[in-house]
Amino acid sequence: MAQRTTEIIVGLFMIAGFAALLFLALHVSGLSLKPAGDTYTVYADFNDAGSLAPRGKVSMAGVSIGRIRDVSLNPKTFQARVAIEIDAAYSSIPADSSAVIRTSGLLGDQYIDISVGADMDSLSDGDDFYDTQSAMNLERLITNFASGR
Amino acid sequence: MMDAIAGLGRSGLTAIGSLGRSGAFLWRTLAGVPNLRVGTPLLMRQLYSIGVLSLVIVVVSGLFIGMVLALQGYTILSDYGSEQAIGQMVALTLVRELGPVVTALLFAGRAGSALTAEIGLMKATEQLSSMEMMGVDPLRRVVAPRFWAGFISMPLLAVIFSAVGIWGGMLVGVEWLGVFEGAFWSNMQSSVSFTEDVMNGVIKSVVFGFVCTWIAVFQGYDCVPTSAGISSATTKTVVYSSLAVLGLDFVLTAVMFGGF
């Protein structure tokens, strides 16, 4: 086979390999080509963060508007402090909105849903959520019910 | 009794000797500055025969493995009403494990055995020694391009395998079994991480490519130059490569995902 044909075929093979890697990166792992700069971070303190984890979904009215960056313990209040990255496109979230932990389906992953408030001011970078609602813990619910409290 | 002990000692010495020879062989193959003008066409030819010609078997196996994963996963997951998790199951299984491992096993059978037989026959027909007579280093001329070609091809093949497998999984899961397509992809994207899952899979396949090609070229170069010797070297290539891949896979998985 001519040298040039071989080179072209090998080139196509290489391109196919990198295209597959690109597919895995963008479509399978959901890596975004957009720079990470166009988000802003807000914080929410929960009594119980349940099974929230970094990269988890943050939604509003069922539409994904950001992701969880970090879950850590606030050493002063002993509450879970969740750092939430929200797309800069959704910059006018009312300041009195509340963050609620919900479960997708009965056994699905937990995510944060933001219930819209009515304030004229909006949340900006570094703000805290005024009101939060912790994860519904089925076991605790049953324990409370069984012990009659 | 003493004979048995002596036999054990002898086989131990042989094993260590061939390990040492393979190390020295690898060093001599890779050492030195490659001549790009002579080396590139040789590398291209090997990339074609090792990488491109392995593409068909890799794509077909990837497609079927992805489809089977989706089908099997669906029957189990639908018992728990969580068929939507099928995307993440297929993707994680392929990207983390099956992509690199199955590709390496196929690669050992398809390309590794061919490499061993080719180099072994060159040795048996004294082509390698005539090269040496002409002042051409057979390690640089014959072995090095094959080694690099295998090393480069393997990660590319593994990535193609995973991508085709996920597509096959989508074909079965979404088109045939009727899982909602949005949930299929979004569950997958929220659980698969590029650095942790995809890149670790690529690292695995790089390691497997290195080991498989090394074993293949060394077995060919070190074989007994007879027809029986070539056949046993080819067998050894496939057996050793497969064992090395499976064993290394456990070690790599423990390091990458074992949490220590």
Biggest interface reads:
A-B, 30 and 33 residues
Low confidence ranges of chain B: none
Overall shape of chain A: it is elongated
Secondary-structure element order of chain A, as H and E? HEEEEEEEH
Radius of gyration of chain A: 22 Å
In a few lines, what is going on in this structure?
The complex is a heterodimer of chains A (149) and B (260). Chain A has 149 residues and is an alpha/beta fold.
Can you offer a commentary on this structure?
The complex is a heterodimer of chains A (149) and B (260). Chain A has 149 residues and is α/β, with parallel strands linked by helices. Chain A has two helices and seven strands. Chain A has helices at 3-28, 138-146; strands at 39-46, 57-60, 63-74, 79-87, 98-103, 110-115, 131-133. In chain A, strands 1-4-3-2-6-5-7 form a seven-stranded mixed sheet, with no helix packed on it. The N and C termini of chain A lie far apart (82 Å). The model of chain A has no long low-confidence stretch (mean pLDDT 83). Helix content of chain B is 86%, strand content 0%. In chain B, 45% of the residues are buried. With 260 residues, chain B is mainly α. Chain B contains nine helices and no strands. Chains A and B meet through helix 1 of A and helix 2, helix 6, helix 7 and helix 8 of B.
Could you outline the blueprint of secondary structure elements for this entry?
The complex is a heterodimer of chains A (149) and B (260).
Chain A: H1 3-28, E1 39-46, E2 57-60, E3 63-74, E4 79-87, E5 98-103, E6 110-115, E7 131-133, H2 138-146
Parallel strand pairs in A: 2-6, 5-7
Antiparallel strand pairs in A: 1-4, 2-3, 3-4, 5-6
Chain B: H1 2-30, H2 36-51, H3 55-77, H4 86-124, H5 127-133, H6 138-176, H7 181-191, H8 194-221, H9 227-257
Helix pairs in contact in B: 1-6, 2-6, 3-4, 3-6, 4-6, 4-7, 4-8, 4-9, 6-8, 8-9
